[in-house]
Amino acid sequence: MQRIRKTTAAVASRIVIWALTHIHHMDPMLMVLFLVHREPRTRGTHGYRRATRSSWFYGTTRGQGRRRKGGKPRPHRVHGRQGPRGTKGDAGDKGSQGAPGLRGPPGALGSNWKQCVFKNLNDGKDTGLIKECLFIKKSAKTALRVFWSGNLRLHGCYACCRRWYFTLNGAECPAPAAIDGLVYMENGAKKNLHRVRQIEGVCEKVQKGVVRVGFWVGNCNGYGSADAYTGWNSVSRIYVEEVPPPQA
């Protein structure tokens, strides 16, 4: 039955087209067919819908056909309630070792210093090692700052001189130069003057690791021995600090 309807509609459409092109000679029966002609309909979700070709005759396109008699609307979708929370799963296997990352820029040097303190040292040695302070240097690229603070004196001599100096692992500072201090007295036959003095400097090219920082007394260049005294009746100290290398 549906096939017959489609065939009839197609034939009627051709007749309508022919009639429009020969409207002056249209037969009365054809005019009746033209007036009662309806375009074929297509079935949609809610019933039948007219084809869009009918718009030229009926004036407007009907967007949605009428719902078939007895048809039921599609029910709305209903969301169910959320289920209970599941239990915690087992831990996964440990992953493999990742590739090593890129090397970062050199970091800033942290503070690294030490002081060795001696109370009432009272060392009357004229030549030799006075005291030693052990220090652990962390980097070969850094330098060492050392200083002595304490009492030094000469006694009972004319035009005499004594030299106090530092050594690092038994040798004087290689770069840039030695770290030392002198006490000279022109006429001191009856003088016994004790004075607090400070000797300080920075030494470069010192290897990392344990460094034995020694404080010594000895002869001045071009002078002989004399009566020296170190650390009388007071506190003396050797201070050691690792510092960054100098600017270029």
Description:
- This protein starts with a helix and ends in a 5-residue tail after the last strand.
- Strands 3, 5, 8, 10 and 11 form a five-stranded antiparallel sheet that branches. A four-stranded antiparallel sheet has the order 4-9-6-7, with no helix packed on it.
- Mean pLDDT is 82; it is low at 51-65.
- It has 248 residues and is mostly beta strands.
- 15% of the residues are buried.
- The chain has helices spanning 2-21, 28-36, 55-58; strands at 41-44, 47-50, 113-119, 128-137, 143-155, 158-168, 180-187, 195-203, 209-219, 227-230, 235-243.
- Residues 59-107 are annotated as: Disordered.
Helices and strands, in order, run as HHEEHEEEEEEEEE
Task: Write down the overall mean pLDDT.
Answer: 82
Taking all Cα atoms into account, the compactness measure Rg is 56 Å
Put simply, the count of helices is: 3
Bulk shape: rod-shaped
Beta-sheet strand percentage? Answer: 35-45%
- Strand tally is 11
What is the straight-line distance between the termini? Answer: 104 Å
Low-pLDDT runs: 51-65
Largest sheet: 5 strands, antiparallel
In helices, the fraction of residues equals 10-25%
Structural class: mainly beta
